[in-house]
Design goal:
The complex is a heterodimer of chains A (about 775) and B (about 160). Chain A folds into three domains: about 190 residues, Aldehyde Oxidoreductase, domain 3 (Alpha-Beta Complex); about 325 residues, Aldehyde oxidase/xanthine dehydrogenase, molybdopterin binding domain (Aldehyde Oxidoreductase, domain 4), CATH 3.30.365.10; about 150 residues, Aldehyde Oxidoreductase, domain 4 (2-Layer Sandwich), CATH 3.30.365.10. Helices cover about 30% and strands about 25% of the residues of chain A. In chain A, the strands form seven sheets. Chain A has a seven-stranded mixed beta sheet with strand order 3-5-1-12-9-10-11, sandwiched between helices. In chain A, strand 13 and strand 14 form a beta hairpin. In chain A, helix 10 runs parallel beside helix 19, helix 15 packs parallel to helix 16 and helix 18 packs across helix 19. The radius of gyration of chain A is 27 Å and the shape is globular. Chain B has about 160 residues and is α+β, with helices and mostly antiparallel strands. Chain B folds into two domains: about 80 residues, Beta-grasp domain (Ubiquitin-like (UB roll), Roll), CATH 3.10.20.30; about 80 residues, Orthogonal Bundle (DNA polymerase, domain 1). Chain B is built from five helices and five strands, in the order ββαβββαααα. In chain B, strands 2-1-5-3-4 form a five-stranded mixed beta sheet, with helices on both faces. The longest helix of chain B is centred in the C-terminal third of the chain and has 20 residues. Chain B starts with a strand and ends with a helix. The chains are: A alpha+beta (about 775), B alpha+beta (about 160). Chains A and B meet through helix 1 and helix 18 of A and helix 2, helix 3, helix 4 and helix 5 of B.
């Protein structure tokens, strides 16, 4: 590795603009003639829209237009769709209800837009919105899963009787049933996986701009995947054909999944920009984010584990109800199915698994992928079961896990996934050593003598990342392929531009992707520019989510690089009158091996573009592209251990230590990888201790601001101790697995296992607030 | 409408704004200083922190009119040409930022924390003091490291001046 190559903790190139206030986020963009949109949103969770009176609003100062849901339907803008088809166990397709960008007839969650005011200033739009009179007829609401599935529940969509979207199964039911019949011990748990609000710090925003002369639209948007946005806006929402629509996602202030999806506001900004003949900007406020950004998690699960007399796991049976909210968001259907149930084998050799997932509509904000997306829910089920089993069987939780670890690879689980490589024992050993697991009983006894309840909790997670082989996901219902594209352009002066379909919204691609180029060519990263986030510049891409940017996106760059290198070697060999096979690349030079003959990269590049002396038949230029479709998922895995103390008098939890030992394969930039883990851990701990979206029975979101929804703050979290173990991923040439979601996947079970260990009581739900912990202790 | 006169990053400026205009909007919309961000509506997240007369203040909680006559410093005003403020450099060197959205407010708050506590900062104090700044990316681990690192650097740079 060079000082800036693969494996170096290079400080980030992109930081300078962020630390000096020169980032360029969507709301920072100003366009001549810009107008501002403010949406009129339903205050009811379920209601008929009887009438909308815009007469007073349309004449208010500065108002450019007032547009309603009926107009967007009349203009044949398509309904929002879910792009992953799930088939129920009875063979029927999923039951998708219609979701217009603004509701013309029926609203189904608080915050759903019914109309929009467009005005010269934001304040004028807000003032006029106050003057729009919407007459609603309230309908009874189903605000959670239990309310939605009971007899006589309010029905959300005529397409989905009983509010059931699908009833889907995976695994072998009969074989699993037999395993439970033969089991020496069975462990059962009821689990609530609490609903979370992603809360990227930058609220969503969109600017639609229409050029009438060119019949061309531009959308600036807070997106993790601008090309997917363009595809969906074009192919399904009928906004504009792809060649007449440019989507730009500039600096984006965090995503965590919530900025994957195409939202009504983006559609309306584009549509309205043509309607009013002016560019239209919408920037959400935080309450709009709480009400309309897709939420995460929200499962009710019963899970059972069967073990034989030797404490070997023989079966796992899971039944989960998943709340998808009022409408099916873009990838919502896949999250509680193929991203969840396929990971239920965890790190363990489980011969029989059967899972049933019933997804339901409720009168709440749509639910979709949030950091980890299904895998945190799966890991929580498995790791809570393992810990509970160990306590029930009175064996050490580490030893029970070790006894059941998968140790032979590749390993085919009963739930689709084929794990390619791993060393789960090594991660567990590393974490146990880091926390001094052996010394815990003494520490617990000492804490007890001081009146404190101390607990330790393990969590051995696995996830499936590098999403995903297109053929595989296509066979499972995905509406898109999940390859990635890249283009490497060597300029005539030898500087390099790398165009990628991945999108960075905090992950540091502008640095890590350059490190690959530095590694291959030996040039400084200052000579390399990463270009992303603009459909006019990058031909196509599937974007960034599912910890895929290194395993899929960077591999695509590598594939393009290999083509560039091959051509450059031909040019160098021709110039040096040497054999192509004798050319090696070192420190930015093409050398004839075993001689002192060399030619520097800029000279090779210049030769490619002057084309005065190229090998016969060679095209000028030095630019290559590649599409890379992965052959398998990648399987990052690791062990987290949390040690904490509970104050029995207050129920308050205090961290003593939190250690992580992750196996992400090869690390491109360890500093950035560790940053990703820190952030993921914070979100996992946030879920365990603090965060939870709460609705009342009428469907009002009670936690719709940072004053009501407990975001993790600096004084809620410990400093983390991170370790790495390494098995290289055999599925891609870089050996990388992905690191973006691990912390959020593994952390929550470690925390809850530690709390339940401390209080000696397994009945605690997330978030384990002091109030809940106190009641768990004192009844 | 009122004409507000104040000093921003050392320059005398004036802006005609509606009386209800918040300082953050004057900075962003009238002065094009878009480094100061809005992350919430309830003065919780701290993405909008600037210095008013040397003290860290959430600029979404101050009417533009209340800042009239004052001396405002934003994230754009703390480096000296190409030379970063020690807090900026510490955030970069310790990987104290990811998406960058909370970063300007974090840096402005952190400078104030170091100014108030001097060399007596420890991890616990930094964590408590950062209670009014929310970051969703970093888990605060590297932000805390950056602030402690910068506290040392600022002491050195003050001693040098």
């Amino acid at each position: 590795m060079g000082v800036e190559g693969i494996g170096a903790s290079v400080v980030r190139k992109e930081d300078r603009r962020f630390i000096t206030g020169k980032g360029r986020y969507v709301d920072d963009i100003k366009i001549v003639g810009l107008t501002h949109a403010h949406f009129i949103r339903s205050p009811h969770a379920h209601a008929k829209v009887k009438s909308i009176d815009i007469s007073a609003a349309k004449d208010m100062p500065g108002v450019v237009g007032v547009l309603t849901g009926q107009q967007i339907v009349d203009d044949k803008v398509g309904n929002l769709i879910c792009g992953w088809a799930i088939t129920s166990k009875d063979g029927t397709g999923m039951k998708m209800g219609a979701w217009p960008a603004m509701a013309p007839e029926t609203v189904r969650f608080v915050g759903q837009a019914v109309a929009v005011v467009i005005a010269e200033t934001k304040n004028q739009a807000k003032d006029a919105a106050e003057a729009v009179v919407v007459n609603y007829e309230e309908l009874p609401a189903a605000a959670d899963i239990r309310a939605a599935i009971k007899q006589g529940a309010p029905q959300l969509h005529p397409e989905a009787p009983g509010n059931v979207i699908y009833d889907w199964t995976i695994g072998e039911e009969a074989a699993t049933e037999a395993a439970f019949k033969a089991a020496a011990n069975v462990v059962s748990l009821d689990i609530t996986n609490n609903r979370l609000v992603p809360n990227a710090m930058e609220p969503r925003a969109a600017i639609g701009e229409y050029n009438e002369a060119e019949e061309h639209f531009t959308l600036y948007t807070t997106s993790q995947n601008p090309h997917v946005a363009r595809l969906v806006l074009s192919a399904f929402y009928n906004i504009a054909p792809e060649h007449k629509l440019r989507v730009v996602a500039p600096d984006v202030g965090g995503g965590f999944g919530s900025k994957i999806f195409i939202y009504p506001e983006e559609m309306v900004a584009l549509w309205a920009s043509k309607k009013v003949g002016r560019p239209v900007k919408w920037t959400g406020d935080r309450t709009e984010a709480f009400l309309t950004d897709a939420h995460g998690r929200d499962h009710l699960t019963n899970a059972e584990l069967a073990l034989d007399a030797n404490n070997k796991i023989t079966g796992l049976r899971v039944k989960t109800y998943a709340n998808l909210g009022a409408y099916m968001s873009l990838f919502s259907s896949s999250v509680p199915t193929y991203l969840y149930a396929t990971l239920l084998s965890g790190q363990y050799n489980i011969p029989n698994i059967f899972a049933e997932v019933i997804s339901v509509y409720t009168n709440t904000t749509p639910v979709d992928a949030y950091r980890g997306a299904g895998r945190p829910e799966a890991s929580f089920v498995v790791e809570r079961l393992l810990e509970t089993a160990a306590r029930q069987l009175k064996v050490d939780p580490a030893e029970l896990r070790r006894k059941n670890f998968i140790t032979q690879f590749p390993h085919q689980t009963p739930v689709i996934m084929a794990y390619d490589v791993g060393d789960f024992g090594a991660s567990l050993d590393s974490a146990m050593k880091a926390i001094d697991y052996a010394g815990f009983p003494a520490r617990k006894a000492k804490a007890k003598s001081e009146g404190k309840l101390r607990g330790i909790g393990l969590s051995c997670y696995i996830e499936a990342c590098g999403i995903a082989p297109s053929k595989a996901v296509g066979s499972l219902g995905a509406g898109v392929g999940l390859w990635e594209s890249a283009e490497v352009r060597v300029n005539p002066v030898g500087t390099i531009e790398v165009l990628t379909g991945s999108h960075s919204h905090g992950q540091g691609h502008e640095t890590t992707f350059c490190q690959l180029i530095a590694e291959r060519l030996g040039v400084p990263i200052s000579q390399v520019q990463i270009v992303h986030g603009d459909t006019d510049k990058v031909q196509f891409g599937m974007g960034t989510y599912g910890s895929r940017s290194a395993a899929v996106g960077l591999t695509a760059i590598l594939k393009a690089m290999e083509k560039v290198e091959a051509k450059a070697k031909k040019i160098a060999a021709h110039a040096l009158e040497a054999s192509e096979s004798d050319i090696v690349i070192e420190n930015g030079e093409f050398k004839v091996t075993g001689t002192d003959k060399s030619i520097a990269l800029p000279m090779v590049a210049l030769a490619a573009y002057t084309a005065h002396n190229l090998p016969d038949g060679m095209e000028p230029g030095l630019k290559e592209g590649a599409f890379y479709d992965p052959t398998n998922f990648t399987f990052p895995a690791g062990a987290y251990i949390c040690e904490l103390e509970v104050d029995a008098a207050t129920g308050k939890t205090s961290f003593v230590n939190f250690v992580a030992a992750d196996d992400f394969g090869r690390l491109i930039n360890p500093m950035i990888v560790e940053g990703q883990v820190h952030g993921g851990l914070a979100q996992g701990i946030g879920q365990a201790l603090l965060e939870g979206a709460a609705y009342d029975s009428s469907g009002q979101l009670l936690t719709a601001s940072f004053m009501d929804y407990a975001m993790p703050r600096a004084d809620d979290l410990p400093s983390f101790k991170l370790n790495h173990t390494t098995t290289l991923c055999p599925g891609n040439p870089l050996g990388v697995k992905g690191c973006g979601e691990a912390g959020a996947i593994g952390a929550s079970a470690a925390v809850i296992n530690a709390i339940t260990d401390a209080i000696g009581n397994n009945k605690i739900e997330m978030p384990a607030t002091p109030d809940r912990v106190w009641h768990a202790i004192h009844g | 409408m009122s004409t507000i006169k104040l000093t921003v990053n050392g320059k005398a400026v004036s802006a005609d704004v509606e009386d209800r205009t918040l300082l953050v909007h004057l900075l962003r919309e009238n002065l094009n200083l878009t480094g100061t961000h809005v992350g919430c509506d309830t003065s919780q997240c701290g993405a909008c922190v600037v210095h008013i007369d040397g003290r860290a203040v959430k600029s979404c909680t101050v009417l533009a009119g209340q800042a009239a006559g004052s001396n405002v410093t934003t994230i754009e005003g703390i480096s000296k040409g190409d030379e970063l403020h020690p807090m900026q450099a510490a955030f970069r060197d310790n990987h104290g930022l990811q998406c960058g959205y909370c970063t300007p407010g974090m840096i402005m708050s952190s400078i104030d924390i170091v100014n108030r506590h001097g060399g007596k900062l420890d991890e616990e104090t930094v964590r408590q003091e950062l209670e009014g700044n929310i970051c969703r990316c970093t888990g605060y681990h590297n932000i805390v490291k950056a602030v402690l690192d910068a506290a040392g650097r600022m002491k050195v740079s003050q001693a040098a001046e």
